[in-house]
Amino acid sequence: MYNPSNLNSTYDKWLQNAHLLDPPFDYFSFADLVLKDNRITNILYVGILTKNMNTSSKHLGEGVKALRLFESRSKGNSAFCITYETYWSKRNEDSIISSMRKRQLEGASNITNDIISSMEHIIKKSCTTSSSTSANSSAFAIPTTNTVQTKEPHTPNSSENETKDALNTIKHVDKR
Question: Which among 9, 28, 114, 124 has most CB atoms closer than 10 A?
Answer without folding.
Answer: 28
